[in-house]
Design a protein that fits this description.
- This protein is α/β, with parallel strands linked by helices.
- It has a single domain, classed as Uracil-DNA glycosylase-like domain (Uracil-DNA Glycosylase, subunit E, 3-Layer(aba) Sandwich).
- The protein has 9 helices and 6 strands, in the order H-E-E-H-H-E-H-E-H-H-E-E-H-H-H.
- It has a 6-stranded mixed β-sheet with strand order 1-3-2-4-6-5, with helices on both faces.
- The radius of gyration is 16 Å and the shape is globular.
- Bound molecules: uracil (URA).
- The site of uracil has 13 residues, from helix 3.
- The site of uracil (URA) has 13 residues, from helix 3.
């Protein structure tokens, strides 16, 4: 059994939040255990709750297209969410749910050791770029402790607000060169505000 499948079994037993009672399926995440890139969305929606897989509804279809635009498919990356159970009525995750679930995301990151973490939407952005606004920092990256953190709009945003589609597509296209450049960029560990934004 792989480290990830053992972790999935633990996540499936989790009952820490009220929403665990209402879920059909836990949605831990999926993809390659040795993925270079990890995408982190918000929370499972109706489709994901039915299938136990992340990003399988309309936003997921767009994410698949975005991945294809850089020559990748979902088996080559890792896709997770900030929280692993669907909030009823697709409401925003509660701070307590984000906090309870954070242990699982941390363990996923420890197992996968991605070179790049791409936040999709404001909830995962808030974890790695606290206090920032997505409209200002989307398409920008910071390198910390040898991991590139990169903020993007949530793919669902393009479905609700067509004007964001181009921005999301353009941000996705920057990923391959960011990864390629990563090795040669110097980290400014002393001053987090000065970390390489590239
Ligand atoms: N939106 C998310 O943030 N995650 C999913 O898995 C599906 C839709």
């Amino acid at each position: 059994m792989t480290a990830l499948s053992e972790l999935y079994q633990e996540i499936e037993r989790c009952q820490q939040c009220e929403i665990a009672k209402y879920r059909n399926r836990v949605v831990p995440g999926e993809g390659a255990e040795d993925a270079d890139i990890m995408f982190i969305g918000e929370a499972p929606g109706w489709h994901e709750d039915q299938q136990g897989r992340p990003f399988v509804g309309p936003a997921g279809k767009f994410l698949d297209e975005l991945l294809a635009s850089i020559g990748l498919n979902r088996q080559q990356v890792y896709i997770a969410n900030v929280i692993k159970c669907r909030p009823q009525g697709n409401r925003d995750p509660l701070p307590s749910e984000i906090q309870n679930c954070r242990q699982w995301l941390t363990r996923q990151i420890e197992i996968i050791c991605p070179k790049m973490i791409v936040t999709l939407g404001r909830f995962s952005m808030a974890m790695y770029f606290p206090g920032k606004s997505i409209s200002k920092i989307h398409g920008t990256a910071q390198k910390r402790d040898n991991v590139i953190y990169y903020a993007m709009y949530h793919p669902a945003a393009a479905l609700h607000q067509g004007s964001l589609r181009q921005a999301i597509e353009a941000d996705m296209l920057k990923i391959p060169s960011l990864l390629a450049e990563a090795g040669s960029v110097t980290e400014a560990k002393q001053d987090p505000e000065q970390l390489s934004m590239f």
